[in-house]
Inverse folding.
């Protein structure tokens, strides 16, 4: 009986409490669940060098390209170069048959020899035996003249006496005049032979020598055209001739290119025409070489726009290993603007839906919305002029799921 008293006392107390609450069950207080944190990624606001780039497509070209064209036509008798071969200026590329031209050279040499011999003979004067023959001709002409003169004197006396006819007298006059002309001619030949040659005779013979020399030079020049040489140092890019084939005047037989340096021609729009200067450095990306970057230099900018209102700009690139091949696609990377930004953030962090750009920063695990004033945008980064403080953490992933005051959980990947 004594063991039941504690149980009875407990039951009485419980009953009293239940009656004091009107016989109802006790009400439990509601507990609000904790807010779910949004996973985000962040970047620090920091100082950066911002560079704005202009990328223009172009094509690699040789710095120099020459089509080798023969000056005479003919049949190819020897090929001395082929595609891909390095050549020096003056190296033989091919030869043409030249038998006919060699014969013309010999003919011109003989003509020059004859012309020079004539000039030497004129300058040296006649030989003694030739001079003796001329003197004998003068003596004979003098004898004939004296006979004709004596005959004319006799015939004039007979004509006055009426013994001879007019025709006989006129015949004596004609014979006298002929004998006198022959004497004058012989004396002139003797004077020329015994004295110095006349200037006009020398000028005529010297002109013949000069003409013979010019003919020989032309013949040798045409013969030299049968050997076609490289006009510059470079590499054979194309060959258009074959052994035994015929080539014509004005038709290319080889193309030689200099690719120790190459150029890329880029079209720069008018809005950037005054941004660049000759001598500035640029980067050139070659897709065919895995996006490799080569340093280049602006060497020319056209002062006039083309039909597309763009300004042709030439970039030169050193190519000692010949990795850059003419015809490869290229992308020229110009720097249009560059500055040191006191505050820079990734451009993807910026939300632009409202009146002003805004970002979210993380403060003690909570996202806070900030309006910002932006400056230069360069690639993946943008300059912040107002609204942030260096060192703050800006949300770069997951910001589209945030409101001011949202609890966040910083993760490496984010949303």
């Amino acid at each position: 009986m004594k063991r039941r008293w504690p149980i009875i006392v407990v039951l009485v107390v419980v009953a009293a409490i239940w009656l004091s609450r009107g016989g109802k069950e006790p009400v439990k207080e509601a507990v609000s669940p904790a807010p779910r944190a949004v996973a985000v990624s962040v970047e620090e606001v920091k100082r950066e060098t911002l560079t704005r780039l202009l990328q223009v497509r172009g094509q690699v070209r040789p710095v120099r390209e020459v089509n080798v064209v023969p000056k005479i036509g003919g049949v190819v008798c020897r090929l001395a170069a082929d595609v891909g071969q390095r050549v020096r200026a003056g190296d033989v590329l091919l030869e043409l048959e030249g038998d006919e031209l060699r014969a013309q050279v010999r003919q011109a040499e003989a003509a020059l020899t004859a012309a020079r011999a004539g000039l030497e003979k004129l300058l040296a004067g006649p030989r003694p035996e030739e001079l003796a023959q001329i003197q004998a001709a003068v003596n004979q002409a003098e004898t004939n003249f004296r006979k004709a003169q004596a005959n004319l004197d006799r015939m004039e006396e007979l004509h006055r006496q009426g013994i001879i006819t007019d025709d006989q007298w006129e015949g004596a006059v004609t014979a006298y005049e002929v004998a006198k002309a022959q004497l004058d001619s012989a004396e002139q030949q003797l004077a020329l032979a015994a004295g110095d040659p006349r200037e006009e005779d020398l000028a005529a013979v010297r002109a013949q020598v000069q003409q013979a020399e010019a003919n020989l030079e032309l013949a040798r020049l045409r013969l030299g055209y049968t050997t076609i040489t490289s006009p510059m140092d470079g590499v054979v890019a194309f060959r258009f001739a074959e052994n035994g084939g015929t080539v014509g005047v004005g038709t290319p037989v080889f193309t030689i290119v200099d690719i120790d340096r190459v150029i890329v021609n880029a079209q720069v729009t008018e809005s950037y025409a005054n941004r660049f200067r000759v001598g500035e450095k640029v980067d050139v990306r070659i897709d065919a070489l895995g996006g490799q970057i080569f340093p280049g230099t602006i060497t020319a900018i056209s002062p006039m726009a083309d039909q597309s209102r763009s300004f042709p700009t030439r970039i030169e690139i050193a190519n000692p290993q010949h990795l850059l091949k003419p015809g490869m696609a290229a992308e020229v990377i110009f720097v249009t603007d560059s500055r040191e930004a006191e505050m820079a953030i990734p451009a993807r962090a910026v939300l632009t839906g409202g009146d002003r750009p805004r970002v979210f920063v993380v403060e003690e695990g909570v996202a806070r919305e900030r309006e910002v004033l932006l400056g230069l945008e360069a690639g993946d980064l943008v300059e912040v002029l107002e609204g942030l403080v260096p060192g703050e953490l800006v949300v770069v992933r997951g910001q589209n799921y945030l409101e001011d005051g949202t609890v966040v959980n910083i993760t490496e990947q984010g949303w």
Observations:
- The mean pLDDT is 86.
- The longest strand covers residues 46-68.
- The two ends are 72 Å apart (CA to CA).
